[in-house]
């Protein structure tokens, strides 16, 4: 995020570089796989063990509950699961695609943010995360199928021509399947570049991971602000982070 929008977002420690939902240097992460703290079937309380903690990111990270998500420049309902961040801001998308899916019959954990106080090219990432727990694995399966189908509609490229400077620009999207400790889903990589006259120096590197196991769905949005010329690496870093966090769920 940039300009006045980034300053406002920093004050909330929510400089989320995409409508949702990334990873920085994993300082402070354990080098070994943690012992599981719980196992299926999951509850709202137990599935929180698999969410990212400030200690997973490193010194300077803090956690807040995302009570003010409706004030973000890219709004999605707090109990929703991301499918195509930022697309609701675009004027040139030719397909009907939702930025997020609101599940039916699930109990959400609520959305939380783990981030440094100040966000920039040299800072820790901003992680926006949550989960939905269902009464049965079959309900979770059905919901995950809906989420995957909707995310598959997300266009490979789109643009945002108007709105806050932090979201104006071009977006490139790629997706791949992912499996971590028995959790299966997808990782969607989004790169946002601003017009040169708005911000020629940095770009947004966001990966949204949505995974499912047993009766739960977990999502993590991992955002970095990268200097132009630096390689986008959120995809590989979020995988390393979630290998640690999801191992706690057994």
Automatic annotation (TrEMBL):
<feature type="signal peptide">
    <location>
        <begin position="1"/>
        <end position="27"/>
    </location>
</feature>
<protein>
    <recommendedName>
        <fullName>DUF5642 domain-containing protein</fullName>
    </recommendedName>
</protein>
<keyword id="KW-0732">Signal</keyword>
């Amino acid at each position: 995020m940039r300009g006045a929008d980034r300053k406002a977002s920093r004050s909330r420690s929510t400089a989320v570089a995409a409508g949702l939902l990334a990873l920085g240097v994993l300082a402070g992460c354990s080098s070994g796989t943690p012992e599981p703290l719980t196992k299926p079937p999951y509850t709202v309380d137990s599935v929180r063990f698999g969410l990212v903690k400030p200690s997973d990111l490193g010194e300077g990270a803090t956690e807040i509950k995302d009570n003010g998500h409706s004030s973000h420049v890219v709004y999605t309902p707090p109990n929703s699961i991301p499918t195509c961040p930022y697309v609701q801001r675009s004027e040139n998308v030719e397909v009907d695609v939702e930025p997020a899916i609101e599940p039916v019959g699930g109990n959400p954990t609520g959305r939380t943010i783990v981030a440094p106080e100040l966000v920039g090219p040299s800072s820790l990432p901003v992680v926006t995360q949550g989960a939905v727990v269902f009464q049965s694995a079959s309900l979770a399966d059905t919901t995950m199928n809906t989420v995957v189908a909707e995310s598959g509609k997300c266009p490979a490229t789109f643009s945002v021509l108007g709105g806050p400077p932090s979201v104006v620009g071009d977006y490139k999207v790629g997706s791949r399947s992912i499996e971590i400790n028995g959790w299966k889903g997808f990782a969607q990589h989004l790169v946002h570049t601003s017009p040169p006259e708005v911000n020629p120096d940095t770009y947004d590197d966001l990966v949204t991971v949505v995974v499912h196991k047993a009766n739960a769905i977990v999502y993590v949005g991992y955002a970095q602000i990268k200097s132009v010329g630096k390689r986008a690496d959120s995809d590989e870093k979020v995988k390393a982070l979630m290998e640690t966090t999801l191992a706690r769920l057994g």
